[in-house]
Design goal:
Oligomer: homodimer
CATH topology of the largest domain in chain A: FAD/NAD(P)-binding domain
CATH class of the largest domain in chain A: Alpha Beta
Strand order of the largest sheet of chain A: 3-2-1-7-18
Number of helices of chain A: 12
CATH superfamily of the largest domain in chain A: FAD/NAD(P)-binding domain
Largest interface: A-B, 69 and 69 residues
Distance between the termini of chain A: 60 Å
């Protein structure tokens, strides 16, 4: 009987384990997870902290018991894999009561990513948080709950964002203007905190188009989030607890700070076993997610993947890719060799009352490095028929390759509910299939007055950029 | 100097005229429109009748004055073209004050469609309406307004749908369960009419999947619309005014009836000139929308087009196609020969608090006739992350070709605002590009908890149908 061992029990690991067991019930599937949580929706943590989700358990899609009893997966939580021996085809896992040596026929390394700890003085002070795990989420929720209790007692008025509010906590700082930073700004402001967001570069959401970044920035401003661009955070001031964020230009008093400056792949275990990393610093794999070691796979936030436009390796750790690649590996190890597909770098974010999505290649230097001659246009269009009583504006950025007309990437932003994110689905196909903007502009997309204009905004954008070629 | 003559001043005609003039300002562009309205959003009429749009003028995207003054198009409203002489390259138009003979170098026939008048006795009675023009819309709005005035005076309780309402008018009948029927059911019910909808076949919205039809039917039922399936309407009873809809099974008292049983292309003028029709009964064109007569084009609701999946001629008269083909013709006649693309048969509809979209080929007989071996699956999935506080259900139907896996078509339905329509954008690309369901399931679609599950419902549907192959 064959054994499939998985290291790491989140999206990639549990998708692979479930798929493999489903395809071949005779396969022994063993999963080692060092923590207690498996298969959890980390993307939901900001909404848990915000208070819209009542329990951490709600973020768990399948419980450990369900994996064990219903799916018959030998899931061992509290087990840290400390060594892989590819010659013997064994892993060594440590747990409370000792150590176990587990042989494998196929191995999946799905060790995930760790939050980046930037070189900021005072990082270890009380009141400095990151958001990389369920327990981080728990800590932040508890902080919010404590603060709300305090403010209910005191009702202070501590800053400009609070002047129209009955109660206001904080001020609090967020370092980093990516997804986590923006989502946490919403979560904290919804709890009446005065929010200060520090971003190193000259715009937030840097993977989106400049026009999208600008629209979200304007909206954060409307929501009384103080955004500091070009802010190099040098230290967190205070005695035991953080009392201020110090940047190259400012000294901003805060009672708490969340650092969300990205993640790096957890690769130490793999490297020690002789698994090669790729140019991005994440584990290198082929299109079947197999590493340089035979029968050793890697997927999820510890691995790199290939971009559908350039074919080049990229490190874009997101939930769908982890699920998809895990599932493909589950099929492969049970006999049906399956590619899980590349990534288009698609991402979506909600920020208060706006939504945004991006896909493909928007950055001109990246496009040029891949041999394209990029051209970018941005349009603003009605999200629904102009005469329809509801509606707003969708801003669409398209980047194409000028000579061929190929759609390289797109970025959209609209009011929440006006469809920027779901409309991006149209662009993912175009980017993935290498469709020209001319052909794309002729797509027979759905139209009715409550949903769009006759030419959906993505088609209008295509017409405009096509005319500029 | 060259002259481009357009017959018909709605979507196809005005798009062609505008594009041609924009590309070549030296071109003489003459448009003959027999009515007074041009470039109007007929798709908005149900919302005007509902009362959500205050004025008919709001449906007009560009006024006749703007076409004349800003776009320098020689637009002649109140001019009916009665003859085309392709040998002389002239058209004859009649107007109040006489007749004009207009030479052309390029001619576009964009005469649109007329509402079908089914063989129902008593069709000419007072209170029987169709909805094919702006003046039809005006008449219906006036009817609604009169009834509301009456009910404000009387406050009668006339039927089951009214029992929980303060006031109720009607009852009214709708013949036909297509877009118009469903949208008008919403418009009339919103005005407190008791609505009876008669559908000849065994389901409404027959171009959508059975699962979509069923969901919308259930919703109409929740909204107290009485739907009569398999109802063959034989006559409208009454003296001068309609008093009842008579079917093979029922005799339903009504005060008004709207007949929305489809449209047929207006082809008489073209036929008289020797323009050939295609197998669908609409004007045949090549991929440049040129007819059998040189320099004579046809587009919009009078013309057939090619289906992107089968390549076969189809008659699917919808607004985007008219706009797109008009625009392409405008480019072609100014020197840049341009194909406007085929159609995927994409359509969207809002029905009270649900939304639905469809694209491609869903009908198994149609698929088989085109050489495919169709397989259809339907799934219900959460529209957002299960733990996210908002959200509903998206029902997705996918039809694929079993041997190749090619995505042939899809149909979606969800609560209004839960994204069935915009999500269909993903399927249009797959259908148009001939993508296999296996590749489609690997698309890197946008994900974040406020917008979908990690696997968007369209991807989940793809996984499910792929597994069934």
């Amino acid at each position: 009987m064959s054994t499939f061992v998985v290291v790491g029990g989140d999206a990639a690991g549990m998708s692979a384990a479930s798929k493999a067991k489903r395809e071949n019930p005779d396969l022994d599937v063993v999963v080692f997870e060092q923590g207690e949580w498996v298969s959890y929706g980390a993307c939901g943590l900001p909404y848990y902290i915000k208070g819209e989700i009542q329990s951490l358990e709600d973020l768990v899609s399948v419980t450990p018991e369900q994996f064990r009893e219903e799916r018959e997966i030998d899931l061992r939580t509290g087990h840290e894999v400390v060594d892989i021996d590819p010659d013997q085809q064994t892993v060594i896992a440590q747990h409370e009561a000792g150590e176990v040596v587990q042989p494998y026929d196929h191995l999946l390394i799905a060790t995930g990513a760790a939050t980046v700890t930037p070189p900021i003085g005072g990082f270890d002070k009380e009141g400095v948080y990151t958001l990389g795990s369920m327990s981080d989420g728990k800590d932040l929720r508890e902080y919010v709950a404590r603060s709300r209790e305090d403010q209910d007692l005191q009702q202070p008025d501590r800053g400009p964002a609070c002047q129209f509010l009955e109660t206001c906590s904080g001020p609090v700082g967020i370092v980093g203007g990516g997804y986590i930073g923006v989502e946490m700004a919403e979560a904290l402001a919804a709890n009446d905190f005065e929010v200060h967001l520090f971003q190193r570069g000259d715009r937030i959401l840097t993977s989106f188009s400049e026009a999208t970044s600008e629209a979200v920035l304007d909206h954060l401003d409307e929501q009384d989030v103080a955004v500091y661009l070009n802010a190099e955070v040098t230290s967190f001031d205070g005695d035991n607890a953080v009392e201020a964020v110090v940047t190259n230009e400012d000294h901003v008093p805060v009672e708490m700070v969340l650092v969300g400056t990205g993640v790096r792949p957890r690769t130490a275990l793999a490297e020690d076993a002789g698994v090669e990393l790729g140019p991005t610093g994440a584990i290198a794999t082929d299109s079947y997610r197999e590493t340089n070691l035979p029968s050793v796979y890697a997927a999820g936030d510890c691995a790199e993947t290939q971009h559908v436009v350039t074919g080049e390796p990229v490190y874009i750790p997101l939930a769908l890719t982890a699920n998809r690649h895990g599932r493909a590996i589950g099929q492969t190890v049970t006999g049906e060799r399956t590619e899980g597909g590349g990534v288009a770098g698609t991402a979506a974010v909600k920020a208060f009352d706006v939504e945004a999505a991006r896909t493909g290649i928007l950055n001109h230097e990246t496009a040029q490095a891949a041999g394209f001659d990029p051209l970018t246009e941005t349009i603003d269009a009605n999200s629904r028929a102009g005469y329809y009583p509801e509606g707003g504006t969708v801003r669409v950025t398209l980047t194409i390759d000028r000579p061929s007309g190929r759609v390289l990437g797109g970025s959209l932003v609209s009011e929440y509910g006006e469809g920027a994110v779901h409309r991006s689905h149209a662009l993912v196909g175009a980017v993935t299939e290498g469709v020209s903007v001319e052909d794309f502009a002729n797509y027979d997309l759905a139209y009715a007055p409550p949903f769009n204009t006759t030419w959906d905004p993505v088609l209008t954008a295509a017409k405009v950029v096509e005319r500029r070629r």
